[in-house]
Design a protein that fits this description.
This protein is an alpha+beta fold. Helix content is 23%, strand content 31%. The N and C termini lie far apart (93 Å).
Length: 505
């Protein structure tokens, strides 16, 4: 009886205790969702960083006179996409009626002024400002707007299109706040960063995130090595600084990937290591003076590495040497693979492009190459890279009908000894020597590697060839030696060389 009467009482107590535990768990869950400690949302130092540097971040305002396209006084001013004023002006100008308005036909084709806005930051209290080149490109007037609203006309010091950087100078009317550069090489994945800029023309805006990736190559230029971050970067942030938690600039916000035009957490900043070198030269010379090696390079694929006895595949393969470049007198030749430059390892062609460009003009450096499976050191005195503004686009011409092979077929190619008729047919310069390709088997490895009629095979396995028989002989020997692929040095009609590895199986 006692046991019977006590049992329900005990069960009720356990039930009430279980409810209390459930409530405690619910409360903890609610706290996790709505009242997480500060370190779970981000570091406490973000506000301190923002307060310390905000006055050094500026807005960049540009104006440009452009030819009106029939818009007259009814033309809508050009606003940054996503601007909060875009909808207002759209309604105002499209619905406007009156003298000179669209309904009256009073069009005015006189040039009109367009405006755009971006971001920048002060690096010297004397009035030196850094931004992106695309923010100020083609501008007739540039103004820097300080955080307190002061607007000052700016002078363009210099630009570098390849890294999309520009330096401006203003004459301050009062003391300025400047920021300094940090070391972007010390960044680690997951480090917190702070972006400040002028998104959608809203003015100084602070966002925070982490370093998502380093040395990111997105094929936007020859020296790509971006910091990727998920800190919100939007249109108008271009040219603004990316800070570490010490308040040092470790990048310049430049690009975003976004289908909508707004931030989806994939933004890119030029690392401070690159920015410092570019800014120093722009301040000193007003232009970039990059080192020049005088070679054309390409990637070392696994097939090419196997053909050259390089393990593992690495480095930059020299496909051509400029006759007037520094590499020629140093003894660097097509087929050499550069694996180290001035003490720095070269993993791929991009590495070599960056390190050469960053090296002082006139400096003598050691270049480590692999030639026929053995390392050699070449001493090169760097020249200066010429940077013409206009690059001639390649002109596409109709490919002539393939000529019937004169000698024989090898590697899925129809091959012919070069003759005057074939040079004329395929527009091959007299300086180009070798065996011309007259047709390519569409199901061959050669077709996959984009060989085409009119290409000239100059070397096979780093030995010159002059006939289809030469090529077949070398291919047969490689098969006997157990090689899986053969390395061809191929020229186009203009004499531009590249290496192609083809399977011999």
């Amino acid at each position: 009886m006692t046991a019977a009467t006590n049992a329900p009482s005990c069960s009720r107590r356990r039930a009430r205790f279980g409810v209390r535990l459930g409530l405690v768990a619910l409360a903890i869950g609610a706290c996790s969702a709505f009242g997480a400690p500060a370190h779970a949302r981000g570091p406490d130092g973000i506000a301190d960083v923002a307060e310390k540097v905000i006055d050094a971040v500026v807005n960049i305002s540009t104006s440009q006179n452009v030819e009106a396209k029939g818009g007259g006084s009814n033309s809508m001013p050009q606003l940054p996409p996503g601007s909060p004023f875009e909808e207002f002006f759209d309604d105002f100008f499209k619905n406007r009626r009156g003298p000179g308005g669209g309904s009256k036909g009073g069009e005015n084709n006189a040039p009109r002024k367009t405006n755009s806005l971006g971001s920048g930051f002060i690096i010297d209290t004397a009035g030196v400002v850094v931004t992106n080149n695309h923010v100020i490109a083609d501008a007739d007037e540039i103004h820097v707007i300080l955080n307190d609203g002061t607007k000052i006309k700016a002078e363009l010091v210099g630009v570098d299109k390849k890294t999309d950087l520009a330096v401006l100078r203003i004459k301050p009317t009062k003391p300025l706040v400047a920021v300094k550069f940090g070391d972007s090489d010390k960044l680690r994945l997951g480090d917190w960063v702070v972006a400040i800029g002028n998104p959608f023309s809203l003015g100084g805006t602070v966002t925070a995130g982490i370093v998502s990736a380093k040395n990111r190559d997105i094929s936007s230029g020859p020296y790509d090595s971006y910091i990727q971050t998920d800190a919100s970067i939007n249109r108008g942030n271009s040219g603004g600084p990316l800070f570490n938690l010490d308040g040092d600039v470790i990048g310049v916000n430049t690009l975003i990937i976004s289908p909508s035009g707004g931030s989806i957490g994939i933004g890119f900043a030029v690392p401070s290591k690159t920015v410092v070198g570019v800014v120093d030269q722009l301040r000193q010379f007003g232009e970039l003076r990059r080192g020049w090696l005088g070679v054309r390079i390409q990637s070392v694929t696994d097939e090419i590495a196997e053909s050259l006895n390089i393990k593992p595949a690495r480095g930059a393969l020299v496909a051509g040497v400029d006759d007037k470049g520094p590499a020629k007198p140093a003894g660097i030749e097509p087929g050499d693979v550069v694996v180290k430059f001035d003490g720095k390892d070269v993993k791929d062609p991009k590495d070599l492009s960056r390190v050469v460009a960053d090296t002082a003009v006139g400096k003598e450096v050691d270049v480590v190459i692999i030639r026929k499976g053995k390392e050699e050191i070449k001493k090169v005195t760097l020249g200066r890279l010429q940077d013409p503004d206009k690059v001639q686009a390649a002109v596409k011409t109709d490919e002539p009908a393939p000529e019937k092979p004169v000698t024989q077929k090898a590697l899925g190619l129809d091959l012919a000894t070069l003759s005057k008729d074939l040079r004329t047919r395929y527009k091959i310069k007299d300086s180009v020597k070798g065996v011309v390709v007259t047709n390519v088997d569409t199901n061959s490895d050669a077709a996959d590697k984009r060989l085409s009629a009119g290409d000239v095979i100059v070397e096979v396995a780093q030995e010159a060839v002059s006939s289809g028989a030469d090529i077949q002989k070398r291919v047969d020997q490689l098969k006997k030696d157990g090689k899986k692929s053969v390395l061809l040095l191929v020229s186009n009609g203009e004499g531009e060389l590249r290496f192609v590895a083809l399977s011999v199986q």
